């Protein structure tokens, strides 16, 4: 599955999962990646990205757990893999790394997060 990458990299309505807290967090993830793209040598921006990604995954997973969401285990694995990857990064971030993060977020929300729409 391939989805268009917004340019500039900003959240829009096409990413809505219709849970207000998660949509707000997704907006924050776009912002955090946007900052990393703008200042690839900024270690603070990378640390912030790692923090908000970790917090968002925890919130999403806890909502899926409460809802007994069937795909929780697979979804969690995908989260862990991405979090592990970004935790292993250091600045300056390469263009490829920034591109990877942008594509990952877009594909993850539209391809994976969308599966829990109306189910949490
Ligand atoms: Fe997710
Ligand atoms: Fe998400």
Automatic annotation (TrEMBL):
Boundaries of every Hemerythrin-like domain copy: 18-120
UniProt xrefs under Gene3D superfamilies: Hemerythrin-like
Keyword NAD tagged: no
Binding annotation for Fe cation 1: 26, 56, 60, 113
Pfam families registered for this protein in UniProt: Hemerythrin
Alphabetic keyword roster: Iron, Metal-binding
UniProt binding sites for Fe cation 2: 60, 75, 79, 108, 113
InterPro entries hit by this protein: Haemerythrin, Haemerythrin_Fe_BS, Hemerythrin, Hemerythrin-like, Hemerythrin-like_sf, Hemerythrin_metal-bd
GO terms for MF: iron ion binding
Protein family per UniProt: Belongs to the hemerythrin family.
Descriptive protein name: Hemerythrin
Organism name: Randiella sp. EP-2017
Taxonomic lineage of the native organism: Eukaryota, Metazoa, Spiralia, Lophotrochozoa, Annelida
